[in-house]
Specification:
The chain has 7 helices and 15 strands. By secondary structure, it is an alpha/beta fold. The strands form 4 sheets. Strands 2-1-3-4-5 form a 5-stranded parallel beta sheet, with helices on both faces. GO terms for molecular function: DNA binding; phosphorelay response regulator activity.
């Protein structure tokens, strides 16, 4: 079941977006529920945002705007797909910082076509994010979604997996080499930012000044020799989604 949230203070657009989403998902035979909210405050305070796979946010809402709402979602470690629906296109940098999947223009030539393209991209991404594997951790064999792994750190002959579980980070350890994991996980958008760190691109908020900044403001240094490559991979990834 796919849960979708629409947050917009204009009823006309809440209803229109809902109809377009329903039309698309019905043709795909996908089970879904859609909830609508009239403000960012109501969405954050009256529900559990982590339950939603996709969140549509109007940028120019009264009170808490869509950008601020998105930042608060990311501060909680929630990795839902965020789509901005707006009458303006002047917020690309802010959207980039919170990992927005798309901008949809309310007054665009064909909002419905743009919506279909957006949902196509999200469904493809979701298929990738369902990839998982059982790892022989010291804490016990555990099946892990690759999309839940923030990063992996190598310490001597041990690997520490930093995994997001129920909006909290838990660390698991196992014996192994980073080189083996890098080859396997690069297909799922992981990048080797340092000899000792393999990071999931979807949790990187920024690459600048020889470091990556994660969604929770944790930073990891990038050696000068790797910096341009990491930066290029990050930019390409943002372009894909």
């Amino acid at each position: 079941m796919m849960k979708i949230a629409i947050c917009d203070d204009e009823k006309e657009f809440r209803d229109l977006i809902r109809v377009y989403i329903e039309d698309y998902l019905n043709t795909k035979d996908i089970l879904y529920t859609i909830d609508t909210f009239i403000s960012g405050e109501k969405f954050l305070n009256e529900t559990f945002p982590s339950e939603y796979s996709i969140i549509f946010l109007d940028i120019n809402m009264e009170g808490m705007d869509g950008i601020t709402t998105a930042k608060k979602i990311r501060e909680r470690g929630i990795n839902s797909y965020i789509v901005f629906v707006t009458a303006y296109i002047d917020y690309s940098l802010e959207g980039y910082k919170v990992g927005a999947v798309r901008y949809l223009l309310k007054n665009g030539y064909n909002l419905q076509v743009a919506m279909e393209e957006c949902l196509d991209a999200i469904l493809e991404k979701k298929r990738e994010n369902n990839a998982r594997k059982k790892f022989p951790f010291k804490e016990g064999q555990t099946e892990v979604l690759f999309a839940q792994i923030l990063y992996i750190e190598s310490k001597l002959h041990k690997l520490e997996f930093h995994i997001l579980e129920n909006e909290k980070i838990r660390i698991y350890t196992m014996y192994g080499t980073m080189n083996e994991l890098e080859e396997e996980l690069e297909l799922y958008h992981f990048v080797r930012v340092h000899q000792s760190y393999l990071v999931n691109l979807q949790y990187i908020r920024q690459v600048s000044r020889y470091k990556v900044t994660l969604y929770d403001d944790e930073t990891i240094s990038i050696p000068k020799a790797r910096y341009k490559e990491v930066q290029a991979v990050f930019v390409a990834y943002k372009g894909e989604i």
